[in-house]
Known about the structure:
Blueprint: H1 24-33, E1 46-50, H2 56-64, E2 69-74, H3 77-89, E3 95-99, H4 102-107, E4 116-121, H5 130-143, E5 144-155, H6 157-160, H7 164-176, H8 185-197, H9 201-205, H10 208-217, H11 221-228, H12 238-245, E6 251-255, H13 263-266, H14 271-276, H15 281-292, E7 296-302, H16 310-319, E8 321-324, E9 334-337, E10 340-343, H17 346-358, E11 361-362, H18 363-366, H19 377-389, E12 393-396, H20 411-429, E13 436-439, E14 444-447, H21 450-461, H22 467-481, E15 486-487, E16 490-491, H23 495-519
Parallel strand pairs: 1-2, 1-4, 2-3, 4-5
Antiparallel strand pairs: 5-7, 6-7, 8-11, 8-12, 9-10, 13-14, 15-16
Helix pairs in contact: 2-20, 7-8, 20-21, 21-22, 21-23, 22-23
Amino acid sequence: MALWDHGYVTDVAYTTNAYQETTPSWLAACSVLLGYRPPDLAAPFRYADLGCGNGLSALIVAATNPHAEVWGFDFNPTHIENARNMAAKAKLTNVHFEDVSFEALARSAPGAADAFDIMVAHGILSWISLENRRHLTSIIGRRLRPGGLAYISYNVATGWAAMPPIRLLMRQLAEVDQRRTDQSVPDIFQTLDRLKTGGAAYFTAHPTVEARITQMKAQDPRYLAHEFLNRDWHPVMFAEVAEAMEETRTTYIGSATTIENVDAAALPEGIVPLLATIGDAGIRETVRDLGSAKNFRRDLWRKGAEHLAGQEHLAMVDAVTLVWTGRATEEEITFAGPIGTVTGQAEFYRPLLNAIREAPTTIGQLRTLPAVRDRAPGEFIQAALLLMGGGYAHPAWPSDGARDASYGVSPASRDSAARLNTAIVNRLRAGIDLHRIAAPLIGSSVAADIMEGLVIGHLLDGTSRDPEALIDGVLNDVTRSGRSLLRDGQPLRDPSDSRALVGETVRNVLARRLPLLRGMGVVD
């Protein structure tokens, strides 16, 4: 590898995705629920994505917050080229992408206009050298405004304790392979399988490794190349990150994985009383990570540590709007946490969910519902954290300018999101897989598989909503993209079977997803 890449995989571009936890609306809601004033997202604000990859997260933030100034930084010119191309196709003028290393960015002299209200670094810290980790935290320390939020996510040693020797072998095998890094992945797994079936004692001593490898085999080789085959791969503990963050003058305020802020849902029952006896914040986080054998952390830091006062906090909590994500609710309302599934009290959570499903609802409005109005405010804060973490709700935040009377989406964000979504669909039509659609109401995105994305593309194009016309359009897209339609993993040969499969998707989108997509501001 070249010197400029610092041992990071650059011969194949990273997979493209977007993460709700990095969006301003999500982070602002987390800040409020955790007791801290967020940046004012209704005013113009500045947002930085450090290590932005192909830029989809930054593009979605820019499209759904047209009054924001968004920057994406990545040292890989291929990633920056891809991001700029998408920005140009979507005609987004409020997003900027720069190919620059953390070292160069840390050494540049920031002016007052270069400060950011929100800075995120998703999946970066534990995949770079110690030197570059110092550069990363230095950038945050110098460029985050007072009152600003910083999000940092990373692999945690408690969940990866058995993997470093296996990961080292994977890296060694990739280094001696002359092919592109992702192309070496199948042979790497073959070697690991032979090691296991040959009786390697390591697998007996560490029984979790086999399940981990099985899970990895189902993932995209490009993802695996960037995840495991870099020179640097260092799962860390919170205490190490906290030490590095000391010089940034920021304070850890909680987790952007919202369910992890509710100890009863995030830890074994016997660990919760132990936490109550520990005063040191760093030790508490270590105990939390050990208690749940945590794999991955999404830490939220704030420059300025003053808690919101009681009444001011409650007023800001009451103003948080929750939007239903479309997740179906069964008889029991369950939340998947780090240690398993917990069940919410039906008499409390059912009225909340029923209200949110009807329309976007503020926590203040939820607190007035007759069935739950005798509950304490803290219970609603916990409920919001669990509903967000459980995938039932996403926060919405006041945005720029006039609002559409029906759904609360500004015309500017509706238009810019539609342009980005059209660019995303055109990538799908070209045979490139993307799985997120910008949703301006929530300032984030919603998941959409390839077939759903193609249907949404025809709705954006103004194609008739007649199911047969939509089926024809999607089948044409599939043919032009060179894809094969699969059922149960097998390609469909009979055209009637292909039409039936596409018809299932079209009818599902029209019957179930279209009302949600309209409410989110995705389609008119």
